[in-house]
Amino acid sequence: MERLQRDQIYQLEKQYRISLINSLVGYKSLNLLGTISNEGITNLCIISSAFHLGANPPLLGIVIRPERAHNDTLTNIKSTGQYTLNNVLPDWYMQAHQTSASYPAGVSEFDVCGLKKLYVNGFKAPFVQQSTIRIGLELREVIDIEINGTTILIGEIVQILSDDQMIAADGTVDHVKAKTMTVAGLDSYFLPEFVGRLAYAKPGIETHELKQS
Amino acid sequence: MERLQRDQIYQLEKQYRISLINSLVGYKSLNLLGTISNEGITNLCIISSAFHLGANPPLLGIVIRPERAHNDTLTNIKSTGQYTLNNVLPDWYMQAHQTSASYPAGVSEFDVCGLKKLYVNGFKAPFVQQSTIRIGLELREVIDIEINGTTILIGEIVQILSDDQMIAADGTVDHVKAKTMTVAGLDSYFLPEFVGRLAYAKPGIETHELKQS
């Protein structure tokens, strides 16, 4: 077994430490974050920090980092109050990754990375046409994290746009059918295979697989 | 394409909505959260809400829900200031899932679910012996989310205990080698397969795979 303690972690070479810390927590949710400015310029960036915060009301959190060129994103979300999260598929994950490049202001990552905008009535922010699961959110809370200057945004899910037959009879999204990818660390992409679905756990009842309906 | 808007989302049958909202964001980081009380009673619960917050200082966030019986966990973390996150492997993921059952106070999920405690000098909270990637954290910030009564905990990574050869030469954790699982929704478990590792994206440079060293 290898052990690293606080002092040793801080002494690691910078890029090694970034790769290590970014990948420690395991596989992360992978989404394209779509926004639009008040001037109508769209922005798209790949993120791996979205997390489920609760189902009632339906809330997701995302982390926005100050040191990256995501300030357009934060400005857009604060000014329009809206944003979208869209899953990433193997056929075009390289295009999704390319949205992390630092393009000049005024350039839309939708255009340069070959991703198509999808708009729906009553919602300003653009969705990604090529995705199969698309979520529209309205900003509810902005939490500035003083320790490292990041910002946690909490949004309410107000739009769900899914391709046909992606949602099972009980409401669970079938991410294998949706071809949703996941990411570990900064740049390693994966496609999960189903292992099992387990029944609600109770004390004294042996853990067992859920019967699929 | 299927579309659900805010009013329709609120009108969904309760269990359907919970399953849908929980699974929308995609695959989630899967970890066992280990704590100990001031009286020495250990606690272990499976969580899918851990997220990377930053590498310098090395920070992770987790969401603690009030409505679940995880209050022991929150009490333990607040009183000792320490907790651990441990990855989940296919050989014993049913035991990990079983930690989500509501056991009476005083019962340790380590014992009833057959998971072995691992302690290291200088750190109070128990790690999971069977895991291959284990993270020790110290509590840095408690954020109460008023909208839904959840709590976001921000912790600093102060211990990394990994089985041998789980970390690549550049610092990235090899989660395929580590056999780390992921979860979608409440109860569906997956094992990812590697698709590709992409080079740092730059404008005007075609997206390409990173040469593995």
From TrEMBL, chains A, B:
Cofactor(s) listed in the protein's UniProt record: FMN
Transferase listed as a keyword: no
Chain ranges passing through the membrane: none
Flavin reductase like domain segment(s): 35-164
Gene Ontology MF: a single term: oxidoreductase activity, acting on the CH-NH group of donors, NAD or NADP as acceptor
Xref: Pfam families: Flavin_Reduct
InterPro entries: Flavin_Rdtase-like_dom, Split_barrel_FMN-bd
Superkingdom of this protein's organism: Bacteria
Keyword terms, alphabetized: Flavoprotein, FMN
Family: Belongs to the flavoredoxin family.
Listed PANTHER family: FLAVIN REDUCTASE LIKE DOMAIN-CONTAINING PROTEIN, FLAVOPROTEIN OXYGENASE
Protein name: Flavin reductase domain protein FMN-binding protein
Organism: Pedobacter cryoconitis
Source lineage: Bacteria, Pseudomonadati, Bacteroidota, Sphingobacteriia, Sphingobacteriales
